[in-house]
Amino acid sequence: xxxxxxxxxxKRRAKLMVRKGSVxxxxxxxxxxxxxxxxxxxxxxxxxxxxxxSRTLLSQLEPGDLLLLAGxxxxxxxxLGLQLLLDAVRLDRKAVLFTLEFTEKxxxxxxxxxxxxxxxxxxxxxxxxxEEISADYVVLHLSGAPAxxxxxxxxxxxxxxxxxxxxxxxQIGSLGVFAKQSGTILGFISQIDRSxxxxxxxxxxxxxxxxxxxxxxxxxxxxxxLHDGAAQMQNIG
Length: 237
Hints:
It is a single chain. Helix 1 (about 5-20) packs across helix 2 (about 25-35). The protein has helices at about 5-20, 25-35, 40-55, 75-90, 105-115, 120, 135-140, 170-180; strands at about 65-70, 95-100, 125-130, 150-155, 185-190, 220-225, 230-235. By secondary structure, the chain is α/β, with parallel strands linked by helices. It contains eight helices and seven strands, in the order αααβαβααβαβαβββ. It folds into two domains: about 5-40; about 50-235, P-loop containing nucleotide triphosphate hydrolases (Rossmann fold), CATH 3.40.50.300. The protein starts with 6 loop residues before the first helix and ends with a strand.
């Protein structure tokens, strides 16, 4: 869905509504979003953030990469991860979503939305929803997959939520070894810490990744940070 104007112009219109109508900014933003065909501003913002970058993200990744897709809730990180998988399918590459958040039906619906209604495209993305998802599970599932396979894990901070799973730093270490040996690209949807203050910097960075459990973020070599319609790729390894 194409916006009628760049997001900074839409925000300017919302601020004018605030000044003229004495309505709260969040209400004005939601009104603008609804005029653009979105239920609320956070969905419009997520669409804007994921849009331009999604067309080039896969071309910036190489076999063996470990990628962080990081942002606050509603900023487009999941949409970007799903688009990455759809782009892989377009290039006849194997694409797998490992999700501890969505049911298969929910994930499939989100994929179909991102694929502009091309059902056969979204149907080619494999969706794994097992509660047993962990590094060992992912490695076993992708064993034998061709080099260039793209997998997205949703999401990083709950990989070790169950006590029977290894610590997160061990899981990321083993996944990094597997990615390099197999030529698989692994993307990890990641939360941003609540301490991130957009008034002090426009985008979060590696220091803002929410880490409830110890992990060396240097194990990842690339990251994409999203906030309020903006997105930026960074090399971090």
